[in-house]
Amino acid sequence: QVHLVESGGGLVQPGGSMKLSCAASGFSISSDAMMWHRQVPGKGRDMVAIIGTDGSTSYVESVRGRFTISKDNAENMVYLEMNHLKPEDTAVYYCNARVKGYWGQGTQVTVSS
After folding, report:
1. Is residue 15 within 8 Å of 2, Cβ to Cβ?
2. pLDDT tens digits, residue range 12-64?
3. Which three-class secondary structure string do you get for the chain?
């Protein structure tokens, strides 16, 4: 059975940092590109970052230079390190296997003073 479980969300002050984790089971993350998306109420789910099977990465312009996506194939884990957080980064963050179409349940990130 396939699961993607995000963790690490919460409340952080503007300018702060947070690291999200995505634990995968039932498939190997090394076989697919893995992505982080985010969604705010009333809007669609937007891609934030992607890491390919070869480790190459790409980011949406609004987070480039502040966020870093990484993975540990041996542990079957995907991470999103977020620095210099802004209130507009507030959203539910989802982990996704791009081709296989698997999704996690999401973790809330709130950036507020």
Report:
1. no
2. 999 999 999 999 999 999 999 999 999 999 999 999 999 999 999 999 999 99
3. CCEEEEECCEEECCCCCEEEEEEEECCCHHHCCEEEEEECCCCCCEEEEEECCCCCEEECCCCCCCEEEEEECCCCEEEEEECCCCHHHCEEEEEEECCCCEECCCEEEEECC
